[in-house]
Amino acid sequence: MNFTFLCNTPPPKNGRKVAIIGAGPSGLAAAGYLACMGYKVEVYDKLPKAGGLMIFGIPGHRIPDVNIDEAVKKLQNDYGVEFRLCTKICGSEPMHEEAGDQFVLTYKSLGGRVEDNDAVLISTGTWKSRRLNLPGADLPGVYSGLEFLFPVRAAGYNISGVKAPDIKGKKIAVIGAGFTAVDVAHLALAQGAEKVYLVYRRTRNEAPCGTLEVSMLEKSGAICHELASPVRITGEDRVQGIELARCRLAQADDTGRCRPLVCDGELFNLEVDIVVGAIGEIAAPPFAHDLGLENVRKGQVRWLQMTNIDSVFVAGDALTGPSRVGSAVYSGLKAAQSLDQWLTLKAENRLNEYKGELIKNTDLP
Amino acid sequence: MKTLYLDYSKCIGCGTCEAVCKFIYRTPRIIMTRTSYGLHVPLYCQHCDNPKCMRVCIRKAIFQDDQGVVRLREEVCRTCDSKNCLMACPYVAMMCTGGDNPVTKCDMCVTRAGLGPACAAMCPCDALHYVDRTEMASLETEASQKAYERVRKYIICPDCSAPAL
What we know:
Chain A is an alpha/beta fold. Chain A is 29% helix and 20% strand. The two termini of chain A are 23 Å apart. By secondary structure, chain B is α+β, with helices and mostly antiparallel strands. In chain B, the strands form four sheets. Chain B has a two-stranded antiparallel ribbon with strand order 1-8. Classes of the chains: A alpha/beta, B alpha+beta. At the A-B interface, α7 and α11 of A face α1 and α5 of B.
């Protein structure tokens, strides 16, 4: 991976400074673009390593760490991009707790970044998982996909203060059949779980991860329960089991949805110690209100991907909600380009000439 | 002669190749697809030795340059109403733009002044390589060959039962 794919050698500095908040695919792609344009770039991240979910979410057998590490080193050594890690940027809104906060050593304000730089790009991603909405979902032993994956990856970097869930010898039920669910199941097996169940309400043919991934998971030793939906999680002071209901794919109805799902079948129990709900992430942008992100998404702003605050731009999952690495990269590049155009025109006092003209529907996420 | 080499066993379908191509050229020239079985298959030009798109092009808009890159003369292409190339390409690598230049295709970023293909540069999985044709064999592994076979079988007969692991 080479974030500076738009230039061969570092260009002369243009005298402008940009702060990027979040060192995931979106922030790093933007850093690469801006470095190639001669900007002095500072990248902030709350985690102890740059790369975001490419390092701490997606497992190493899908994206090898070394590919990201080398790309980050190139930004740092050849292009002078500065990384401020273990640093969280806060706005005026109260902070909510999220995975990864345990690494933070320094808190800095968004206002300070805006004052110290010509522009700021927010690319903080999606850190909030959708919770299982079930009786018993608040018992110890119930995790979201990210809560489960993240500490295990982090513990691998010998970072103190991170407590990875104890997996060895445990029985684990994973709810969902997306890539996060598959990754959780593989990780649990690799860490010596006694039994790993993958529970999905539809069949493998509908699984978002595809039948190939399901077959590979079974080959590694997981047990797949298709057409089963969790009803409640049982246990006194910790998870002891999960009750599931059989589902069936009903015939197509008039609403046009091809296979409605009905979960009214017999109930059955699985004896488990851990339940992981890998049912998706939701966008949790910091300072969403301050920035007026809804308008940015719709393009109802003065400048592409610029927020309510002049010179503050936004990109990636923080703007669009959970997506793929590719979409995050594209969004980061677009924001960086827009930011550069905005600063250039501002310097020439020409912003008014372009008012509202630069946002095309094809540019929106 | 350099070309793109894809290791299907490493591709995770993240779409970074398509994203950077779209960023540079507006209409991406490499498109990520996924089979219902779950294989990730980016569609892109293989820069064939004997390109079918070139043979069927009635305007002679498609040509091979001295480096073996199969390229498109857009101003000539614009006057063509047959679009035979779209159907002829066995790799589904001729892309409709919906714009004034009706068709576009990969030119391995020859216009990017020696920077090479952006897709290969940005692939986070090390799946897409820009290499000399003579080096391609050395990049192959048992896993890559198996994955290639799976993709090939699927493309030949998508309705056949899922290929074995």
